[in-house]
Amino acid sequence: MNDDLKDILANSNKDIDNQQLMNYLTNELSKADTHDMEKEMVEDDFLNDAVEGLQKIESKKNMEAYVEQLNTSLQKQTEKNKKRKEKRRLKDDTYTYLTILIILILLVIGYVVIKKYIEAKPNTNSTTNRQLTKEM
Amino acid sequence: MNKEKYSHIDDNQLLQNFYADKNNEWLGILLQRYTLLLLGVCMKYLKNEEEAKDGVQQVFLKAITELHKYKVDYFKSWLYMVAKNHCLMKLRDKGKHAVEINEQVLAAPDETTDKKKHLEKDAALSNMETALQQLNPEQLQCVTLFYLEKKSYQEITQVSGYNLLQVKSHIQNGKRNLKILLERLQKNER
């Protein structure tokens, strides 16, 4: 009796077994399990609301199909996000390498152009000098 | 990821794994455990199977987004609050009901305080019988049949003649009143 009285204020926070819940909705639980489930419902507003809602779905087959669909789409969503993240990381890396390569190419081109310019400058000067001597 | 493979990991651990590597697949495993419950909650408030399905998807999306932003300690209570708020907002947008989202709905239940309170209550079991007798006859009958005689809701409806909703409400209100009565008795003892 004392244990039963204690039960009234017990605040259990057990994880919900989905199969157990399904069995409750289809009246396939034993008397004791049904009572346990209902006791959980008094303690747990989430479970209580869920049972009230699920009882409104007439076909239990539909219910299972909905859960399956929702889980598949959730799985796709969480996997997609991961793939997108990986893709983005790869893309980011490609941009970094590309930038480094472009900078290197620009440096090489710059070096070649400046070198050519410096080499070409004294030649131009000597040609001008030669022209001046001729004219005199 | 295989659902069975992770059945030994509890909700909290899955959440910690997610916070450690920010891999959404952990959230996928965690949220899948609540699909059926969420479908039920959405169905209760939205009363339409297609809308309930959409609702669950939006709750999933919201949960994934929000969990990236901040840390959640009591996942189950938090998820219930997200689902309930989503449905109430949806109803308010539709103008079906003038739903007032009060503080009780928005605030996450404080489980630590609750547990502490219940432990204190356990100590006062001797007052329970006295308190039981102070319940109104309907609540006394339903609470006694449910907790002491371990009858199911269905059986109580047959024995008492009340309908299912009345039985649930008498049990819940009876339990709440018992807590209040016990608190009063404890105060008087001091």
Rounded to the nearest angstrom, the distance between the terminal CA atoms of chain A is 132 Å
Most extensive chain interface and residues per partner: A-B, 51 and 60 residues
The ordered string of helix (H) and strand (E) elements of chain B is HHHHHHHHHHH
Q: What is the number of strand segments of chain B?
A: 0
Query: What is the mean predicted local confidence, pLDDT of chain A?
Result: 80
* Element-by-element helix/strand order of chain A: HHHHH
Q: Roughly what percent helix of chain A?
A: over 70%
Structural class of chain A: mainly alpha
Assembly annotation = heterodimer
Counted beta strands of chain A: 0
- Unreliable spans of chain A are none
Our measurement of the CA-to-CA distance between the termini of chain B, rounded to an integer number of angstroms, reads 57 Å
Concise account of the structure shown:
The complex is a heterodimer of chains A (136) and B (190). By secondary structure, chain A is mainly alpha-helical.
